[in-house]
Amino acid sequence: MLSLALVFGFSSCSKSSNSKSGSAATGWKVNDKKGGFQVNNKYKKQAPAPGLVLVEGGTFTMGKVQDDVMHDWNNSPNQQHVQSFYMDETEVTNMMYAEYLSWIKSVFPPTEENYKNIYDGAALDTLVWRNRLGYNETMTNNYLRHPAYANYPVVGVNWIQATEFAKWRTERVNEAILEREGYLKKDAKITDVSAEANFSTETYLNAPTKTFGGNEDVVLKGKKGKAKPIKTKGSKGQPGQTKEATNIYAQRSSGLISPEYRLPTEAEWEYAAASDVGNREYNNYKGQKKYPWKGAYTRSGKRQVKGDQLANFKQGKGDYGGIAGWSDDGADITNAVKSYPPNDFGLYDMAGNVAEWVADVYRPIVDDEANDFNYYRGNVYTKNKIGDDGKVELVTTETIKFDTVSNGKIMARNFPGQIAQVPVDEQETYLRQNFDKSDERNYRDGDKQSTRYFNFGNSEEDEKLKEGKKMYDSPQHNVSVDSLGELTRKFDKSNKRTTLVNDDVRVYKGGSWRDRAYWLDPAQRRYFPQDMATDFIGFRCAMSRVGPKSDKRKKARN
Question: What is the band of 2 on the pLDDT scale with cuts at 50, 70, 90?
């Protein structure tokens, strides 16, 4: 009898904990309309965001190049693992960026004094096409705006502009999702938006009543504004009560909010470009690819298109597209996206067309001794700024942060309606083992402790290193704008500088229409100042995947 009782008791407990409406931890009712713990227990998987395809994560040899004729020593092979993520199927096009500029122009009119630098800061540098001994005015005047180039990759974009575009894209995608799901008024993103009233994902999550300037006609309570007050029945001697509905706004736990668009890390980009998954046999790679496609040649071996080039790149000196009537790659400058076959992940133009910005700050080495999982150099940790009232503080038209970059361009780094950010401090870093300050760009390479001049026994450890004793002694140009808007440029004329590397140079990957085939190898890496643009560097966005590594059950395959 005792054993039967025990069996009955265990089975009862099991049934209760697996109840669809009950908590496995407490047995309490979940998603009760009266309140309490709410969770999306019908969530299945992350919905693909516009323009993205899934790149299933895995391990690979980063930096393994077939040729190193430059002897850079900056791409030594090292084993890395990246988590699954999403990446743009193609490079960001002129049409996509023009939509961004159109939105900025309508929401932050450049004719108004407060906003004139917002549009100018986002505008591309179309003069990158000019050449002292070349006639390229056709591209200068037409490449961004003319419909003939609408589906060509955007160029003339610096790294800062690329990251700001990714942030804007995040807001617009989540704004559309919440409108579709009934949490925002239909078409408010067009009819009700203004500089003082617009959508920010983080503002909605942290202070939904302040989104769209606090307009309750736009930010709806519950789906389609149908959140009703909760009424409770009274008992003997106690009248019933009416209280406001809870959990009336979408939250991260709703599973609706999309993770942010961003630039891919260098490790992600290289892994996606190499697409070694196409060379896989069971749990091994059958060799390393020299290019994003199979084989050691740049021409197709397929019978139907035999001899066609598989990417857009410079064939040789003075040869950008071959002989008229028999073009080698179908282009002389850039080419429309999807003009060449995709790689094994379904990504187009991971070699040729334009090189692409990635998120990382450049250093000559990849420090795999410090980390071999989701490697990235460039972390600058921030947190929401809390006002005197104990609530998050929003950026206003008067507190927009502008930066003057090295070439004098003034760029907005935040926008009205967003939550103001401040660096993390000791409250977040004290006694932590995984990070110790807000700015980690120099960790183990380039910071004071990394130099041979660092004195560990010196009590003045925080003093600045003397000139000439820094690991990366790059030129120190200075640009400032006075109260009258006059620009002052101070060019560093020192001939004692040892490098161009600093914390503001970023990695770019992949060959371009201006490059020889040598640079098409996914492992090749170069760097360029983050606030400067060229006619051969563009970008594409990525997004982290939440949840399982893949959607499909694993099967052995040859």
Answer: very low
